[in-house]
Structures are given as structure tokens and as C-alpha cells.
Design a protein that fits this description.
Blueprint: H1 2-30, E1 35-43, H2 47-58, E2 63-67, H3 93-106, E3 123-124, E4 127-128, E5 130-131, E6 136-137, H4 142-155, E7 159-162, E8 172-175, E9 178-183, E10 189-197, H5 203-207, E11 212-213, E12 247-249, E13 252-257, E14 285-286, E15 292-293, H6 307-314, E16 324-327, E17 331-334, H7 356-379, H8 385-391, E18 395-397, E19 418-419, H9 427-430, E20 439-443, E21 447-449, E22 453-456, E23 462-465, E24 468-470, E25 476-479, E26 493-494, H10 503-509, H11 512-531, H12 541-550
Parallel strand pairs: 1-2, 1-10, 2-7, 10-26
Antiparallel strand pairs: 3-4, 5-6, 8-9, 9-10, 11-19, 12-13, 14-18, 15-18, 16-17, 20-25, 21-24, 22-23
Amino acid sequence: MKNHVFVSKVFLAGWMACALFFTGTELAAKIKPRIYQADIVVYGGTSAAVVAAVEAVHSGKSVLVVSPDTHLGGLSSGGLGFTDTGNKSVIGGLAREFYHRVWKYYNDSSTWKWEKHAEFGNKGQGTVAMDGENRTMWIFEPRIAERVFEDFVKENNIRVLRNEWLDRSKGVRKVDGRIASIKTLSGIQISGKMFIDATYEGDLMAAAGIGYFVGREAGTVYNETYNGVQADIKERGHFFKVPIDPYKIPGRKESGLLYGISPEPIAPNGTGDKKVQAYCFRVCMSDHPENRVPFPKPEKYDPSNYELIARVLDTGWMEWFAKYDRIPNRKTDTNNHGPFSSDFIGGNYDYPEASYDRRKEIIAAHENYQKGLLYFLSNDQRVSEEVRGKMRKWGLAADEFTDNGNWPRQLYIREARRMTGVFVTTENEVTNKREVPNPVGMGSYGMDSHNIQRYVTSDERVQNEGDVQVKLKLPYSISYGSIVPKPTECTNLLVPVCVSASHIAFGSIRMEPVFMILGQSAAQAASLAIDNKQSVQNISYKMLEGKLLERGQILVKKE
């Protein structure tokens, strides 16, 4: 009997030890290691970040993506499905592969749930959705874009640390002018040979001590026509075309200004400032009754914030629905349009350099503003029944952003920090007035800045300022020097998103296909720097050029 009890106790102890061992193993598998190392470390979760990581793998390098975002793809999977392409012939490499993979998804009948493939129009405002000859598709749903990015990650066995935020105050360790390692707020440490900042904000770049600029340079800085303040220019579109009174009680200045109008006097044209072009969410809407969620009323809803759009509608302006750009499955990529729209003008000035907590507040304010605008136009008696009736046919797409109340996760950060690197791309390069040295990609979209401020004119009318829309006659090359910092600042960092460019030049560069192109070129340059034990500034451009051409990148436009 004693032996039986002894054996039972031994068995029980062994079973418990075994259970503890396996439980511990499961727990260990769920806990992230605290130290990582890779040849190339990519910080960011944008389209450029994913493409850079894929290129690193194709170049035979170990890579780690450290992403503040849980969902990958940035704006490309965050609502911007009506791609700003410009001249598609200059989009090559992995960027074109992304749009090819989108095309493949839409060639599958199972992708078409809310409308038939044959019912989807192939053109919208000059953008071809599906290019069968080149096997690409340029207009797509957010969920499909995210699938493509996740496919890239899975196929290339790319390790992604999600929801990991750089410690911006003391999380970058530099040795002899090189980044040795970075640390996240959770305490994870990552060392690497090369680093790529692929964020919209340029946080790694700034934390590494790289020079940058926020706002608009004066036109005299780079001898540019369209930089600095741009009031009453002809190359604009989103402004008040008829007189609108700016005061809460019309004609009564003492009543105060309507919401969103700045009391500051407008500066002379060409004047530089620290203001930033407006942000918004690219909302994905649906008019399918089974896939439509009514626009929600935000917690901090204040209908008086939208009196200005009501006055615009009172003038007979009926362009509100002009930028409900159709994407597949009876959805939209809804963008800003007109004098008063989804752009929260003036609500973002301190975003580029703000703390994480302050940025959250700014993002929440943008969400509240935009949700309130949609609710106001759908429900408020101040709006005509015609507009309210049309609005109620729309709602948020129920099958998009399902873990975020069907609201986009990514605010459209059109511009934040811009590096001051080895070469600064300006209006003169974008318009092909000057030759570009050492090209690593091309852009072609017009110089496009959204409005920056809303002010009162000398005759006491409300007006917008900062909108610039200058079409380009030809595509242009982007210099390698615009994605690398000055050698005195850092020798193993590349910046393919917050590139070295003036405000107005960045207005063209800032398109998602270009970010992907530059992300791939940055990763290839990082690989060459590793192979040849060189700084990113000293690699052979001829070698880089050859590798990029092998990868299908387009560096110059052949006549």
C-alpha cells in the first residue's frame, strides 16, 4: 500500500512537472524576446515598409519590420484605394507587383460579393481601374490591399513586430555616426547593420538626429513659384468661389468667427511658415443595403461646427458627392472636395513633432470632426432634404475595418517631417527644369498640396489658402540623395517616405506608388552597403543602378 502511494505521488509530481513544462513553453512562445538582430531593420508599417522588407529578403538579407501599426499597408490598405498614379508607365518593380497582385484577386469571382465583376466600371475620373493588357489593377478595397501586403509577408517569411513604438526620447543608440540599435517603448531592443525609416512621420529619422523641415519653405529658399503661402492663385480648386460670410451672426464681426476660421491675417504670397497641409480619413462607404452601416453620431458632436458647409450648400453648390470615387463591390474611397469637406483644415499643425499621446488626441479630433460632418449632412434640418436624402443612401462599409467600427485605422498624413538630406528635390526637379543626379525611381503626379489655412479676406469673406494643383507635362526622376541623410548625421539610415524635398515637390512625391518604389530602392541600397561594408552615402551608384534595373525599377523616362 505504501509503495502504491509512493508511486502515485511520483506519477503526480511527474505529471505536474510535465504540465508546467508545456504550459511554460506555450507561454514562452507567446512572449516576445527582448532582443532582436537583423541585417536590415525597417521601422514602420506602411506600404513602403513592406516593400522594403520584401526587397531585403530578395537580396539575401535578414530583415525585421518593427511596426507601430497592427495592420500593414498604411494608406494603401487604410482607405486610399483610388490610387493617385499619374503616369503608370513609370511604376515598376515591387510597386507594380503589388498592383498586379490586386489584379489577380479581382480576377477571382469570389472577390466580388456586392456586385458582379462585369458591373464595375473600368474608369473613374481618368483612372483606369483594371488594366488587363498590363495585368494590373489600380482601384481596390482596403481589405484586398491588406491581404496583398500580408501575402508578401507570409511568402517571404518576414518577421513583423506589431504594435511596437519607438522610444523617441532615448531609444536610438548611435556609435561613430551609425545607428547601432533602437529600443521600443515596451523595452524591446533591435540591433541592425542598416536601418530604414518608412513611417509617415519620420520618427526614427528625427530621433537619430537627422536634420529635417516641417511646414512650407519660403519661395526664395529654393527659387520656387509654388512654395510658401499661395493665396488667390489660379492653380487651385478647393476654395470658396462665391462670397460667404465668416461670422457666427452674418454681418456681425463682434459675434466671432465660425468654427475652423483663423483670425490670423494672411501673409504675402511666397512667405514660409510652419503650417502643414490638411489631413483627413479616406472613408470607405457603401450604398449596398446589406453592407451599409448608418453614419454614427460622434460623442462630441456639435452641429455649429458645420454652419459653414450649410452656408455653402445654401448658395446652390451641389458638388458634395463629386469625390465619392467608386471602388469595387459598391464602395467608395471618399476624399476631400470643394471649399468645405473632409479635410480638417488647421487641425494638424503640431502633429508632425507631437508626442504619441498628443497625436492620439489629434487623430481623435479628426475622427470626431469627420464623423460629425457625415452625421450633420445626413440628419440636420439645416441641410436640404435633397442632400440629406442622398446622404442616407450611404453608410460605412460593414465589411471594412471590422475591428475599428468600420472606420479607417490610418489618418491620411499627407505631409509631416521632411528630411534635409544629401540632395533636396524641389519644384525645379519635379518640373524637369534641372537634371536629377543618381535616380532611384520616378514620380509623375502633379504638385498637389491640400489647403493649409482658412482665413478672412480684406473684404470680410471666408477663403481657403494652400491648395495648389499643378499638372506636370512629363514624369521626373527622384535622386538617391533624397533618401539618404547627410554623412555627418548618420551613415546607415535610409528614408524613403519622409524624403528630402521641399513642401511643393513633396506634394507630388507623396503618392503611395512612389513610396513603394523608394522603399524598394532603399532596401537595395542598404543591401549593397552591407555587402561592400560601406556607408549608404558611399555605395557605388552604378552598382545600385544595375541592381534596380534588374529588379524592374524605372529610373528615367525614355523618349
